[in-house]
Design brief:
Elements (H helix, E strand, L loop, with lengths): L4 E3 L11 E3 H14 L5 E2 H12 L7 H14 L3 E3 L6 E4 L1
Antiparallel strand pairs: 1-2, 3-5, 4-5
């Protein structure tokens, strides 16, 4: 079976990120975008909400994949970090 792989991006152009399964990428991406559709979240809140949403139906480390995809979404300018303290994430 040949799984499709995506090379994720990193918001720092000098860094590269990971190659991950497209199905896992899409699952995490859709969940993250759904979570932050209505309000801003701190990093901790975002990762905990993601974990609670996917923990029972996701194979692999939700936090690890969540961080990888979150960075990719930042690099693709779909989400952004706010300037406040603590930083929060929101849709662009």
């Amino acid at each position: 079976m040949n799984n499709s792989i995506i090379q994720t991006l990193h918001p720092n152009p000098e860094k590269s990120n990971k190659k991950i399964d497209v199905v896992k990428y899409e699952t995490i991406k859709n969940a993250l975008l759904e979570i932050i559709a209505d309000k801003e979240y701190t990093h901790t809140e975002l990762m905990e909400t993601l974990y609670q949403k996917l923990k029972d139906n996701f194979e692999g480390g939700v936090h690890w994949y969540g961080e990888t995809v979150k960075l990719d979404l930042e690099a693709r300018k779909l989400i952004v970090r706010t300037d406040g303290k603590p930083e929060r994430y929101r849709l662009v």
